[in-house]
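Why does residue order matter? Because the sequence determines the fold. Keep that principle in mind as you read this record.
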Amino acid sequence: MSSSNTPSVSVVVIAYNDAVLVGEAVSSALAQGPVVAEVIAVNDASADGTAQVLDELAAVHPRLKVVHRTENSGGCGTPRNDGIAAATSPYVLFLDSDDVLPPGAADALVRAAGEHGAPVTVGACVRRELPLHHDVPWMPGLYTPGDVIERPADRPELVRDTLCVNKLYERAFLDKHGIRFPDGRFVYEDFVFTARVLAAAPRIAVIGDLVYVWHVRRDAAQVSISLDRKDVGNWRSRIEAHREARRIITASSPELGLACQVKFLEYDLRMYLRELGKDPEYQAAWWTLTRDYLTGFDEAAVEAAGERARWIVRLLRATATPPADVERLTRFAAEPPRLLPPYATGPGGQPVWSEELPVVLDGLAGLAMADLPVSVDAEPVGAGRLRVRVRELYGRLAEAGPRTVRLSFVPRSGGQPVLDRPVELCAAADGDGWTAELPFRLTGVAAAGRRQGRRGMQAWGVQVGVEFADGSSLVTSPRPLDGLLHRRALPSSRYGVLLAQPFRTGGGSLALRLAPGAAGALSLVRNRLHRARAGRGSE
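Structure:
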């Protein structure tokens, strides 16, 4: 069995115009210890100082080998292929120039690969939102640490993990099956590479160790290819990558092929739909592309998808152009999902999307209360109070009997939520749902954040929990009405003043920025400038 004393891994680092960050990536690979025999950095014809940074590091670290491409490939696949070609170790790990490997990652992967004789070993990955350092687990619950998967077809849900960077590959396995990345300007090359890996049916070992930190810099001057969604070309590229991956996987296993289609409907489709924006030309182009691609999907895949994805597919198929309530559809595709009124019914009282598009919402009656796309509105009422309205949804809530509601504040950078006390719900005077007035004590939230060690500007998500007479419950995020979205300065005995900025997230949910005292106010100003620059860079 391989150990940390046996040099076994070639870490392939790809870089293009990333002189500021590539050194940190390379250093994290070298810091893995003796198990890393070599770090192969492939410079994809950078025009900045990347080449000089890598050459200077190589002069100091004998394990670092630098490959300089003379022409830019236009993507990530070709430089990774160059790295595989230059590798001499039994195992290969991939690392992007703006990410890092956490300590011990390579050793943990190699030990598991040797113990189980696995050509592929997978570990945990987090998406780290910068500059807040908010870690979001990648595909939580997909893998069971310690598991050994004999054949990917035994676990069709594996198609949901399309990353190549959270896995250790046996180089002989890649060579035997001719597994490489698509060359050139091919976006989402991971999709095709991963499909080729799964199609070769390797044994896969699973470890619980964190093996990759994926840095997400949405305010970067040059965003990553996957985040560059300013035109419909990104969606077209994703569809083409999924089409090729689906072809490869289906040829190897019908079960995996079906799962690949379901994954697209439940994940890719909803992710892009909730980011559809308001540009009519983009919406129309996106709608046409999506409808055309979905015509080739198996009906069995549509039926196997979850209710929300299934309804979205049927809406897309029902109209050749985006509907008048397309923004309502984007809110429905968001997390948490919410179906905004009005609520129409078809023949026999069955729930339908709208009178204009009477797509049947089949399966809604069987959804658990916690999974219903309930809509909750929030608006200010007096000082330090919030009125919430819980909307009825085709009779499901009235049947369960809404009793109480309460607010909770969840740190957007991770941590313990702050819970308010529950308040009794009353039937709305106009008969449209249930209402309650809740305390909105933002100074108390800021103080709780400070007790948790938060300094400067604090960012919080707001959630609403509803308890029902039948013992069921649901948690969602309220939809802020416009009257709530005003900055306010609140007196604070501890800070002197607390600046509070309620805002609407991209998914339409209520969130808060709280700036206690002068230091917090300065952080809030810097944050606004940060986001303003990011907005200009993404236009």
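The first strand starts at residue 9 and ends at 15.
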